[in-house]
Fold this protein.
Amino acid sequence: MSIRRLRVKRIHVLLALAVCAVLFRDRLLTLGHPSSGITVPMPGSITADGDIGPAIVAAARSQVGKTVKYDPSYVRLNYPLGDVPMETGVCTDVIVRALRDALGMDLQRLVHEDMRGAFLLYPKWWKFKFPDKSIEHRRVLNLMRYFERKGFSLPISGKAEDYLPGDIISTDVHIMIVSDRKTEQGVPLIIHNIGRGAREETGLFIPFITGHYRMTLRGKQHTRMNAIFPVSLTAVIGAVVAWRYFRKRRKRE
């Protein structure tokens, strides 16, 4: 076998491995990175039974009376911990601020980093070709996808008792936080900004719920252990491709 043929075979094997690596780019880029994003909770964030919901509700309620306008304009933000002025914002800003103040979660950074490693898995409604750290975390569909990917999703239910204080619910165009206060009928109130600033009011089942999420201290983790499968599969596929290539070449010779 000539040196030239040997080099060509090596090139084909490397190309096969490269293709496999691209297919599993998302998992390979997230090795060892915690997915929940919850850092050390703020003082008083956890109740005696480990519930962090009340802290989220308190952080969301603190925005009522401070955020008095709704403004969906694009604003170039600082990074990380970027934010628009407190007196304004959109529905997603209520979520971003509440989780940041209660749990130390910087959704701007978390969503941006996750999109950098898994951009193709996020919605493409806005036709962006790359992540934009000033706006991506302020879009409902992006937050829904992030929460889903990090293991915070819960079943959607028509029963009021299934929605606990601090839960996050969404439609495809709106997102809100479940309050610890209820109506006379026992239906939880919601805290959100749907056009008049941050408010706490009724409306849990008025929109068609498409997402239900609950923050926990144990989000799904991307670790080296759960990355063994994609890495091993990449090696196996590469080996199979190389074997088939060599087999065909031998038959031709």
